[in-house]
Amino acid sequence: MTPYYKAGEPGATVIVVKDGKTILRKAYGMADAAGKKALTPDTVMRLGSITKQFTATAILLLAEEGKLSLEDDITRFFPDYPTHGKKITVEHLLTHTSGIQSYTGKPGYVAGMTQDMSVAAMIDGFKNDPLNFEPGADYRYNNSGYFLLGAIIEKVSGQPYATFLEQRIFTPLGMKDTAYEGHERGKAARAVGHTPADKGFAPAAPLSMTQPYAAGALVSTVDDLARWDAAVSAGKLLKPASWQRAFTSYRLASGKSTGYGYGWEMGKLQGVPTIAHGGAINGFATYALRLPEQKVYVAVLSNADGGVISPALVVTKAAASAIGKPLREFKEIALAPAALDRFTGVYEVEPKVTRSFRREGNTLVMQRSGRPPMPLKAYSPTGFFLPDSLDYFEFGLDAKGAVSHVTQFHDGAELRQARIGDLPPERPAVKIAGTAFDSRAGRYELAPGFVLTLSREGERLYAQATGQPKLEIFAQDENVFFSRAIEAEVRFDGADSSYLVLHQNGQQIKARRL
Fold this sequence. Notes:
18% of the residues lie in helices and 32% in strands.
């Protein structure tokens, strides 16, 4: 663990339990990087989407009591919810197969994330959106579904979501430091959430915890998460049939497995079944994984939402070591630019989803459609690994020696992706004088606590939003700058640099200069 976290920076709390015994319980890094306060193993942090397993368990408690059925149409609880003539069930919400649009992915969400909202007002904000697909026909991770589940818990139990979880789960299991943020009962110290900044880290962008709600608003410690896993492993709270259902991968109408149950993801690590979930929320990143057959549980809570190693990677490496099957380690080798060029092109991940490989200097860069580019490192003449990740890629050749496909190794699976064509031409850019851009460089506020920073390093231009990676941008002219990594551009009104307008996802956001 030690090499992953730097002194004086945000870090993580870690717990590893095997056969009911804690074999590692430690904290690394700072609880408050600015105040130089060190983390301790009992520090409280936001869980993000690990919250979902508690919400799912609360739903199953109510189902066992006969107060609801997983097959219930959501209109039983929300009579005026526009389902567009489709039946959307409680189980669809649990399994991310409802087709409802996720409110956190809607244009404008970030700009309004500091506003306190009622449960009803939040639901009104997404319920009239068209469905993404027929309920049960596809899987798409969805925070709206779990927000609705929280509202169902309140309607059926007659209690606030925070109170129901406290009385029915946290208190009975002795989880004194776990709560809906703002409703804490314990007195354990809280970590400050951090986000990457131009120099080191800054406090995370503010967020009203009324918005993540039942999809991500809980706080906890690694100690309480270990207590939680011990209770789940012992079959407490629910009947065996309910736990089995929660840990069974849901199948779509087509019969395809989604790899997701009720608040947990199902997978494999070194050929061993896993049950896991992660979380990402302003200032924090988390991951917890259990290997039921080996009776191993690992949880990592990090107080930075970027700029540090992924908790999922740390957890997975630790779990593999704990069962005596350590993960493969790669050693980087150098390949000539001409050797990299043979791998460039577009490869099909699935219908309408592609993965592109292009060379930038002496580096092969991979980009999945709709996601930022990621540099790869070679470990063999045809093999590449993704730094700070478990994924790696092997390119395959046809009988003539030409590259025909790439195989992605992901979570124990081998995913073959055929090469379907050459890279499309890049959007043309023009060179402008550095001094012409310097008048644009600065910080622009997209929303309270959410800032877009424009900067120049030599002749290269960059944009970086709070908590997000720095992206290179290019000039269309002296007033318009665009990214080749994502579909986004910023525009200025002539020589006026007092504000800019960000164009992204069909939305236009005006940001004043700070």
